[in-house]
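Task 17 of the worksheet. Students: predict the tertiary structure of the chain below and write it out as C-alpha cells. Keep your answer in the requested format; marks are given for formatting as well as content.
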Amino acid sequence: MLNKHHQIRKEAAKWFARMQYAEADHPERSTFEAWLMQSNLHADEYLAISAAWDDFDSTSKINALAQAMLRKKDSAASNRKKIMQIASKSLVLTAIGLFSLFGYQAWQSQPVVNMASNTTIGKISQQALDDGSKLILNANSEVEVIYYRNKRLVKLKRGEAVFDVVKDVNRPFIVESQFARVTVLGTRFVVNQIDGRVIVSVDHGQVKVESLYAKNSIPILITNGQVAEIKPNAQPTRLKRDAADAFAFLDGKLIFNEASLNEIAESLSRYRKKPVIATIKSAAQQSSTQPHITAVLNIAEMERFLTLMPQIAQVNVKDTSDRTEISPKN
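Model answer:
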C-alpha cells in the first residue's frame, strides 16, 4: 500500500509540473482530468503538492507552522527538539520535492531530437522521423524537427510538406508554419505555405488548426478530406475543396483550384530553376478581377503549360533571361 501511495505521489508531481501553467486547451488536459478523477487519493496528492508549492516561498508561513507545532506540545526541551526535527524534515522533503519538479520541467524541456532538412528546386525528399512518422518535403522546402519528451514539434520554414504521423497520446505532433499551428496525435496531412497563407489538407484522422497571432483566435477541427486556410491575423476557415488535390505532387501533378497568379507562380517555381514571378501592377489587379485559374498539369509538362496559359486565361506570359513573368491582361 505504501509503495502504491508513493507511486501516486510521483504521478501527481509529474502532472503538477506539466499542468500548473498549461492553457485550458492543452492537449494533455483531458488525460490529466481523467487521472485526477480516478480516485480521491489522486486529487488529495495533487492538492497537497500544489499547496506545498504555494507555501514553499513564504518564510512567514513556514515560521507560523513551526510556532503552531511548538504551541501544541509541551514546552520541555526534548519535545521542542522533536518538533523542530519533524518540521526540518518536512521542509527538507518539501524542498526536495519542489526541486524535483524543477528538475522534471527542465528534463521535459530538453530536446531529444533536433534536425533540419531542406530540398532544392525540383527535388522531393522522403524520410522517416525518430518515432516512425514519415516526412515528405516538396521541392524547394525547409523544415526543422525538434522532438521533446512531451511533444513533437516541426517548424515548416518554407514550402510544403506531407506528414504521416504515428499516434502517441503522450506526445502530440505540432507543426508551426508562419502564423499557423497544427496539432495532431496521429494522422496524414499536408501543410502548404504559399501565396501569403497556410493551407492544411487532411487525408485521414483529425487535426486542430489555429492562428498563432490572431486576437481571440478560435481553433477549428478538420478531418478526413477537409481543408483549412489560415491568413495573417485572421481566424482559420474551412475551404470547399478536395484535400486529395494537395497530395497530387507526389504523383508528379499539380492541381489548381481557382488559384491566383501568385499561387501558380510560387508552385511552378518549386520545380523550375528560372523562377516564375507574378507581376501585379495595380491594386485593381489584385482584386477579384485578377484571373483565377483551375487546371491539372503534369510537372514534367510545366513549360507547355506556361506556353498555353494565355490561351486558357486572361494572362500574359513574358520570358526574360533570368525569370518568367505572368501578369493579368489589361
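Marker's comment: The radius of gyration is 28 Å. The chain has seven helices and 19 strands.
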